[in-house]
Amino acid sequence: MLADVGSFPYNVVLLLHLFSVFVAFAPAFVWPILRVTMRKQGGAVLPEQVARHIAPNNLVVHGPALVLTGLFGVLMVLLSGEAFAFSQTWISTAFLLWFLMLGVLLLGVVPAERKAAAEGETPGPDARVNMFGGMLHLLLVLMLIVMIWKPGL
Fold it and tell me: How do the residues of the chain divide into helix, strand and coil, expressed in percent and rounded to 5?
């Protein structure tokens, strides 16, 4: 192996792993709050106008950040020496959750946000955006549980 847990290369990859998580999931928490606030306040800027500007960012920024999150995680396992192995239950579970997150983002959130941005404030697309956003929140919580407690280790 190239390094061990706690070594400089491992810590650099850990930093990149955590940073990519923040980039990937920040909008999943900020955007729903912003949308609700804008609806309550009314005003000149409508939520669907903002959605038209935000929706493309999922494929340009957030999707790639989520992909990088998983790739940095794989690199961390490779750099961990004998501490972690791909055969461990928590790493297999993390892979499953990561693939589910990618699926929800790319096959759920992105199409629903595009439709919501195109159609305006129809309840259908907005409800789907909320549903898929909630799924991402749940998957993130499950992933954090797996990362912290490492079941099967």
Answer: 80, 0, 20
